[in-house]
Amino acid sequence: MEEQDEREYNNEHDDQEETFRHRDRTERFFLQWEAPEFIFHKKKPFWYWMVGIISTLGAIDAYLWDRNVLFAGLIILGGAMMLMYADKQPKIISFGLTNRGVIVDGILHPFMFFDSFWLVEKKNENLLILMPVKKWSQQLIIPLGNIDLDDIQEKLSDYLPEIQDSEPLAHKIMDYLGF
User: Fold this and answer.
1) pTM score, whole prediction
2) What is the average per-residue pLDDT within 101-119?
């Protein structure tokens, strides 16, 4: 039933309005902003050469060491995918903070699915990390663009506790690799 409510909510959402109706409740945006889905890092030719060389050597090693053609092919496929997505430009996504949850690109993520939040300040970007209630669920990492961190903290503190945590390791690794 809740999935149907979210679908109806997302279908009724209009980016131009400050308030909108969901069933018999009116929701208000506290904050709205737009930000790129990720920070684009221009890669030098050396980066492409290194991905190609490491993928090729890894595939050769997998084949010679184990005679594992499937794993060698998987390594080549992974390297090709990295090269293919390396120049992908980020799309601009709209975000919103309402009295019921966080809206990411028109999809509501209710506060009841999150246990806490944490704001991460970085030199290139600021991030909002929402920690899920379920232990094995994925964290929601939201770029804040040029929204003031104090405004986000003030509004979110009414709904979720702020618990200091670190940026997920996978996110740090992808940032280091230039993705």
Assistant:
1) 0.69
2) 92
